Amino acid sequence: MSITITTVNVNGVRAAAKKGFLAWLESTASDVICLQEVRAEPDQLPVELRDPRGWHAYHAPATAKGRAGVSVFSRQAPAGVRVGFGSAEFDASGRYLEIDLPEAGPGLIVGSLYLPSGDVGTARQDEKIRFMDAFHDHLTDLHAKAAAGGTHALVCGDWNIAHQEADLKNWRANQKSAGFLPEERAWLDRVLTPWTDVVRQLHPDVPGPYSWWSYRGKAFDNDSGWRIDYHVATPGLARTATAALVERAASYDLRWSDHAPVTVTYDI
């Protein structure tokens, strides 16, 4: 079977809905959509965002109002839904939600991740490092679970780290910036030892394709972006990936987020 999965940081889903997200949702051929930075409680969402027609929708808001928040929309009803990854500090922070899709090939777990962005020299960067340490343990367990069960796992989302020089346009100027620090990139090296960066697998040796552009200046027009939105898959699933596309808006004024949807089709 073929399954198409999209991940996108919506930068506030209610704002995105006013700019074109709902039209995109109506037109997409994706089977699963992972959203990040939803920034709303479910009861604050209109029904077309809380429970969109044709989708099974699940939300993990943050206890901090108006911040973070992840959601997963699935055309197939999942057999299980889990918020968080067993972390006392982070499970209520609106940063991770995963679902079980047992009818997808040999079985598939899909997670929506919003990793903290960090800020060098501040408590926000300390929080990011703590999250990375805790989440790495979950990734290790999830990989082992999939391997033992002969199933697949996929963690989509805004990882807030550009892994390699090819993953951001102005890498030389950002070597001391959060999102491209040596220790963050080394952490992704460890993650991607058993796991696979699917988009990079399908698009090797090319700049980007970028998925985030600042709203400031001419970053979007000049394609001066960062690739920080990933599909990170277990190896068996990664081998089934047939196409990967960053759905970059045709022009600046047609953007409904500072991120673009990253869509991958798997033939499982």
From TrEMBL:
Span of domain Endonuclease/exonuclease/phosphatase: 7-259
Cofactors (names): Mg(2+)
Lineage: superkingdom: Bacteria
Enzyme nomenclature, EC number: 3.1.11.2
Keyword Cell inner membrane: no
Gene Ontology MF, one: double-stranded DNA 3'-5' DNA exonuclease activity
Keywords for this protein: Hydrolase, Magnesium, Metal-binding
Database matches in NCBIfam families: exoDNase_III, xth
Family membership noted in the UniProt record: Belongs to the DNA repair enzymes AP/ExoA family.
PANTHER family noted in UniProt: EXODEOXYRIBONUCLEASE III (PTHR43250)
Protein name per its UniProtKB record: Exodeoxyribonuclease III
Organism name: Streptomyces polygonati
